[in-house]
Amino acid sequence: MSERMPAPDPTERVTRHESPAVLRHAAGLLPDLPRAAAFALAPVLAVQGARTLARVPRLPEAGGDRTGLVGDDHDDAVTVLVVGESTAVGVGVDTQEEGMAATLARRLHETTGESVRWSVVGRNGARLRATARRRLSGAFGEYDCAVVVLGVNDTLGLTSTRRWRREVETLLTALRRGLRDDGLVVLAGVPQLRHFPALPQPLRTVMGLHGRALDDVLTRIADDNPDVVHIPTPAMEDRADLAADGFHPSACGYRRWGDLIADAALLPWRRGGVEGS
Question: Are 231 and 265 in contact (CB under 8 A)?
Fold first, then answer.
């Protein structure tokens, strides 16, 4: 009588054939774990969110012109477009001259001697999807560099990492229509909400983790696109860096942030090479 073959080991079968698929599925879910935690904690977070909104003063967008020139050369100025949410439009300071666009334009002018023309397009409370649908090139013509400042509202709105990536890529397509040859797109890192004193716990931790997941997507997109660089946003841990609401940058905070983007992205780009995250 022939020897019977041993029955397949079900554990071995799962390990050999199903485990890779399971692991890939699990890995795909990891970036959205903070989002899942937020849904699980929804009753607590909803109460904390409502109390925070009631307590934190709602600051207006900065006043003044949303375009300007640093330097004297109108014809050969480097053109920089800043696109985004509240931090793009200067919430937390009185005028656009104290905001992100003018700050990084001044820094670039100081370090290179080039004239810099800056423009701002954005809205307080804007999310990525709405920004990506705007006709950016049609409104502002061509530009040498676009700086994207988005992520807080998508973090608080629990945009999934998959949707976030898709919409970032849509925005990049729109920006490239107006981007000149050898131009640069800077993706400013999603602000680190875990350091925001205006947010109570556990809201601060959950939102901080989800913001980190969205920021990791920006890093990967920059790695895949030679005309894109990702610059992590500095933690605003010093109270002097924050406006009265404890949420938006102060003039000092915008100066730190704008100088960082200029030094880490715009200056190397004008000199022929950029190193991002």
Answer: yes
Q: Which residues contact 93 (CB under 8 A, 6 or more apart)?
A: 62, 99, 243, 249, 250, 251, 254
Alpha-carbon span 137 to 172, nearest angstrom: 12
| Predicted local distance difference test score (pLDDT) of residue 1 | 40
User: For the segment 241-271, what is each residue's pLDDT rounded down to a tens digit?
Assistant: 999 988 899 999 999 999 999 999 999 999 8
Q: How far apart are CA 1 and CA 226, in angstroms?
A: 68
How far is it, in rounded angstroms, from Cα 197 to Cα 80? 32
* CA dihedral angle for residue 244, residue 248, residue 251, residue 256, rounded to 10 degrees: 140
Calculate the average pLDDT of the chain: 82
Report DSSP letters for the chain, one per residue: -PPPPPPP-HHHHIIIIIHHHHHHHHHHHGGGHHHHHHHHTHHHHHHHHHHHHHHS--PPPPBS-SEEEESS-SSS-EEEEEEESTTTTTTTSSBGGGSHHHHHHHHHHHHH---EEEEEEE-TT--HHHHHTS-HHHHH--EEEEEEE--HHHHHTT--HHHHHHHHHHHHHHHHTTEEEEEEEEEEPPP-GGG-TTSPTTHHHHHHHHHHHHHHHHHHHHHH-TTEEEEPPPP--SGGGB-TTSSSB-HHHHHHHHHHHIIIIIHHHHTT-----
Q: What is the pLDDT of residues 159-218, one digit of tens each?
A: 999 999 999 999 999 999 999 999 999 999 999 888 877 787 887 888 888 899 999 999
What CA–CA distance (Å, rounded) separates 58 from 61? 10
